[in-house]
Amino acid sequence: MYEKEEEMLDTTKKKLEQVVVPEELVKNAIQHGILKAKAKKRKRKKTLWAFSVAAILILTFVTSIRVSPAFASAISTIPGMDRFVHLIQFDKGIEAIVENDYYEPIGKSQVKNDITFTVDGIIIDETGAEIFYTLETPYPLKNLDYQEIKLFNNGQELKASSSYNLPDLEQGNSNEDEFSLVFVDSEQFTSNDFEVQFEVEQNNKITTFNVPFTLKNEIKSGKIYTLNETVEMDGQQIEIKEIKVYPLRVALTLEFDEQNEMKILQFEDMRIEDENGEVWSSIQNGITGFGENQNKETTYFLQSNYFKEPKELYLKFDKVQALPKEESYLLVDFAKKEILEQPSQRKVEVLNVGSNTIKLKYRPIREDHMYSLFSQGENAKGEVVDIPRQSNGGNNDEQYAEITLDAKDIINPVRIDFIAYPNYLKGSVSIQIK
To answer: What angle do CA 163, 165, 171 make, to 5 degrees?
Structure first.
C-alpha cells in the first residue's frame, strides 16, 4: 500500500545525504519529530512499520522546513516535495493537518494515450480540497496543456474555482504538484465516494482522466462560532455574523451596512489570535470565498489551525482598504481613450488608455502581495465586460498594472469598479470569539 511512499522516502534519503545542513539543526529537528511521534497513540502492528517511519520523517521535515529556509530550499529540489514545502511555508494549518493524519493517501492511477495521471492524496473539507497528483509520460511534456480539473462526490460535480501551478515542462516527463479547489458554496457531502476528472491537451487532442476513490477517513465538520456582533471602524458599520473553522481554512462571514458611505475593498491584516497574542489564523492574500464582494454579505477565507484548541480566541483587523462609494470606480470612454471619472484620492495614476486596455501606476498596496485592482467591468447597457488579462509588476517604490478588457463587449462608457485600492479606514477592531 505504501510502496510509492517508501520509494519516495528512499530517494529522499539519498538526496538528503548530499545536502549540507547544520548538524545541530538536524539533530534537534529529528528529536522534535520523534517526540511528537511518540506522543501519538499508534498500533504497533508490523504491517504499519513503513507508515510509522514515514510519519516520523514527515514530522521531521515539517519541523525542519519551519526552522530553516536553507533546509526548505534543499527539500524543494527533491521530486514531489516542493509542493509540501510550499504549503507548509504558506499555511501553518497544513502542518497540523499532516501531523494529525488528515492528509489521506490515495495512490490511484489511470493511463490514457501513454499518459499516466495519479491522484497521490487529498485534503478535503466543506470549503474545498487540495488534490496532490503526479502526471507522467514516456516523452517530454513540453507540448502538453492543462485544461479543466473537476471533483465529483457521489456522481455530482462539486462547483468550485480551481487554481494550480503551470508546470515547467521544457524538461523531463513527470510533474508532481497539487490542485487547489475552493467550493462556490459550503458543501455537505452525501458519501465518501469521490472522483477527480482532469483534462490535458496535446497536439489539439484532449485526454480526459477519471480517477474514482473512496475516502477512509471521516471528513471533519466545521466548528461554528455564531457572533452577530456589529463593530464600527472609521464610521463604517460591519457586522461579524459567524466564523466557521475547517481543517483547510477559516470562513468568516461579514455583512456591511447599506448606509455606509465607504465601499469596503480588502482586509490586509485580518487575523485570529489566542489569549497569548499568538496569531492563530490570518488572511490569505485577500481571498474571498462564496461569491464576489458586492459590499453585502461576504465570506472571507483565513488560514486555519483547526486541530488546535486555544482557551480564548479574538478576531482582529486593521489596514482595511476602502473608497467613497460614489467614486469607487473608473468610468472610461475607450473610443476617446479618456477617463471620465475616477477616485479623488488619485492614489492610482492612469498612465494610458487604449482601445481596450488601461495602464496604471501606484505605490505598492502590500509589500508581499500584489492585488488585482479590478475584477470586471460594466458597459453602458449594464452588461458585464470581462477582464481576461491583468498583469502586475514593479518594486517596493512603484507598482504597475495593465488590464485588457474583452473588446467585443465594450459599449462606452464602461464602468470598472475597484476591488483593491491603497486608501485605508482609520482605527482597528478586536472582538472575542471564544
So the answer is: 150
Beta strand 223-233 pairing with 236-245: antiparallel
Residue ranges, CATH 2.60.40.1630, the chain:
104-214
CA distance 112 to 201: 12
pLDDT, one tens digit per residue, over 230-256 is: 999 999 999 999 999 999 989 999 999
Region 223-324+424-432: CATH code: 2.60.40
Three cell numbers, residue 48: 504499519
Number of H helices, E strands in the chain: 6, 26
Gap between the Cα atoms of 127 and 124, Å rounded:
8
DSSP annotation of 2: -
| Second CATH level (architecture) for the domain 104-214 | Sandwich (2.60)
Collapsing DSSP to helix, strand or coil, 161 comes out as strand
- Residue in the structure block whose three cell numbers are 455530482: 156
Under a CB-based contact definition with an 8 Å cutoff, are residues 226 and 134 in contact?
A: no
Q: Which helix (H) or strand (E) holds 38?
A: helix 23-39
Average pLDDT of span 75-79: 47
pLDDT tens-digit series, residues 10-48: 544 444 444 444 444 333 433 434 343 334 333 333 334
Q: How confident is the model at residue 296 (pLDDT cuts 50, 70, 90)?
A: confident
The C-alpha atoms of residue 236 and residue 348 are separated, in whole angstroms, by 23
Q: Write out the three cell numbers for 394.
A: 514593479
CA–CA dist 127, 185 (Å, integer): 7
